[in-house]
Design a protein that fits this description.
By secondary structure, the chain is α+β, with helices and mostly antiparallel strands. The chain contains nine helices and twelve strands. The radius of gyration is 17 Å and the shape is globular.
Amino acid sequence: MFGLAIHGGAGTLPRADMSAESEARYRAGLSEALAAGFAVLERGGSSLEAVTRAVVALEDYPLFNAGRGAVFTHDGQNELDASIMDGATRKAGAVCGLAHVKNPIELARAVMEHTDYVMLSGAGAEEFALTRGLTLVPRSYFYTEARWRQLERIRSGEAGLSPLTISHVGTVGAVAADAAGRLAAATSTGGMTGKRFGRIGDSPIIGAGTYADDRVCAVSATGHGEVFIRLAVAHDIWARVRFGKRTLAEAVREVVLEELPAQGGEGGVIAIDRDGRIVMEFNSEGMFRASRVAGEEPVVEIYRARPA
């Protein structure tokens, strides 16, 4: 049973503040990315290719905090991070601090497949991108007016607003199981609005924001990166299933609804096992998410279902 799940970040706009037009645009972006990844699985392609195509589509959609539409640093720049992991081999690739790579997830995959390294950063990563023929773009490509206004609000010291309030909204990710039972996970982000000093969050950290192992599950996370790193969230979920004999749903709920809040961490994860069972959980008001398994219709959601 093959399947795909994607996320566009946790910590969404409060339901009361989400206009019908905005919701429709977010849903359209999620639907397009889900379709791009699921098409790979339908034609017998690999989970690795499916998560790559899904995340590329999300990076290209300007409402999400990844690729075009990434948030700005305190200095008014974009610094992009991404990671990917192949559950069949447990090989992984990651990049951080990018300024010109159009699709960071493609570079993360190139690191995994064409180097002996796991993570490359900054100018060196972009030099490697040139050797692989990946598309580089001017800094202006990533600019959106909405993200610039967010930075200005942070810089102004607006009362009650902190970088964490709006930072992790929009980080993107995907997990997939293909027809052969192979798993993969991928995550991409622009980081934290107003971040300084080259700060790196959990998205490019294998075991924190991304993890995949065919024997157990694949996980992609979104949220308060510092807490996700300290708790090694993606790996913790894997370990609870692998050694703690939890079901995937139990492991996800324990980590997201118990461990993260205990450390002041807000966010969520998507996860899948080799049988295509999908779990999506979050402790914020909402999480942009979508999923589809073979033989079923796609599901696109933002908030929790209203009580009956």
